[in-house]
UniProtKB/TrEMBL annotation:
Keywords: Glycosyltransferase, Membrane, Nucleotide-binding, Signal-anchor, Transferase, Transmembrane, Transmembrane helix. Residues 330-349 are annotated as: Disordered. Pathway: Protein modification; protein glycosylation. The chain crosses the membrane at residues 21-39. This is N-acetylgalactosaminide beta-1,3-galactosyltransferase. One of its GO terms (molecular function) is nucleotide binding. Belongs to the glycosyltransferase 31 family. Beta3-Gal-T subfamily. Residues 330-343 have a biased composition (Low complexity).
């Protein structure tokens, strides 16, 4: 009886050890998996685990030696007030790129598309294949934006006052953007767009999709001091947040871009989500004070998440349909003209 008990206790002890070993192995396996996911995607799961930063050495100016630049891109103005660049990818070449090229982009002093290759693009589209060695992955967006900012300033031109970044599903009221930017000094660093706060509660970051403008001074600081530094400009899987953190390390913070009535100039969600006030609360930096038709005001600059036909519709209504209405309202004695010149909105500061 006694020896049986002894045996049993021994068995238990042994069993316990192997359970612990199994748990330990499971834990190690789990940890290694998390490590791999975090390393590869850059999603911060466990803060002290490393993230793949090889992009700093891999995705740099060396990639710019073998790029295609279209005739239209080469013939764009080399200096002026407003430089616009649009990040795109081959799947959007026949849809979004066409719509952007035929609506708001030509209203900038220079407009450029940055993409991976020239598939289905004519020489009449101003494109540069600066991402040709970069994979089309969400997790590589930071490297793309980082390269695009440097490229715009250092390789295309240092002689614009403002550099505006838009997406291929953004509509920009370029005339209003111009008027708005005129009140800032481009020799001081500015970073102007729609402020979000999630994971960056203190100063916030500008949403990438509704676009943001950087002054020449901000571009210079980025190119000279931030781009080369892993510490000042670290990777984050949210590329827009990463850019804000990068600029923030030199004290460049998003500007409060609401107008005097608290209305947003840049809209980051779908128009109807702003219309219905149906926005993801955890991202909201500035309290939502306006919804319904109030979101469509005379100072509105950009809309995001649009289909190509929606961009054409907006453009047609702004520059076609409304020109006659504006004339009627403002100068009732003048006979209506067939001119398609843009309505001059009143800018409320
Ligand atoms: C793109 O826009 C430019 C500038 O307005 C224009 O000259 C060109 O014809 C457009 N390209 C296409 C393919 O529509
Ligand atoms: C509208 O703006 C354009 C360009 O800024 C200017 O030339 C024109 O005189 C303005 N028209 C009116 C009615 O203010």
């Amino acid at each position: 009886m006694k020896s049986f008990l002894n045996d049993f206790c021994q068995f238990l002890r042994k069993y316990k050890t192997s359970m612990q070993t199994a748990l330990l192995l499971l834990f190690i396996f789990f940890f290694v998996t998390l490590y791999k996911i975090q390393y590869k995607t850059g999603i911060e799961i466990i803060p002290f685990l490393p993230i793949d930063v090889s992009g700093f050495d891999q995705y740099n100016e060396n990639l710019l030696v073998d790029i295609d630049i279209s005739e239209s891109a080469l013939s764009q103005q080399k200096k002026g007030f407003l430089f616009c660049w649009v990040m795109t990818a081959p799947i959007h070449h026949t849809s979004r790129v066409k719509a952007v090229n035929s609506t708001w982009l030509p209203k900038c002093d220079a407009g450029h598309f940055y993409t991976t290759n020239g598939h289905h693009l004519s020489q009449k589209i101003p494109f540069h294949t600066i991402f040709n060695a970069l994979p089309d992955s969400y997790f590589k967006l930071f490297w793309k934006t980082r390269l695009a900012l440097l490229y715009s300033y250092k390789h295309v031109s240092k002689e614009f006052d403002w550099y505006f970044k838009g997406d291929d599903d953004t509509y920009v009221v370029v005339d209003t953007l111009r008027e708005y930017l005129k009140q800032f000094d481009h020799n001081k660093p500015f970073y102007i767009g729609y402020r979000l706060k999630r994971r960056m509660p203190e100063h916030g970051y500008n949403a990438g999709g509704s676009g943001y403008a950087m002054s020449r001074a901000a571009m210079k600081i980025f190119a000279d001091e931030l781009y080369p530094s892993k510490d000042l400009c670290p990777y984050h899987e949210w590329e827009d947040l990463a850019i804000a953190r990068c600029l923030g390390s030199k004290g460049i913070r998003p500007t409060d871009t609401r107008d005097s009535k608290g209305r947003q100039r840049f809209l980051a969600w779908r128009p109807e989500e702003h219309f219905n006030g149906d926005l993801t609360r955890s991202f909201i930096y500035d309290k939502v004070e306006h919804k319904g038709f109030e979101i469509y005001h005379e100072n509105l600059i950009s809309l995001h998440h649009l289909q190509p036909d929606e961009m054409r519709l907006i453009h047609g209504i702004l520059y076609g349909v409304s020109s006659a209405i504006n004339k009627q309202v403002e100068t009732p004695s003048t006979p209506l003209e067939t001119s398609l010149s843009p309505p001059n909105g009143t800018i409320i500061q």
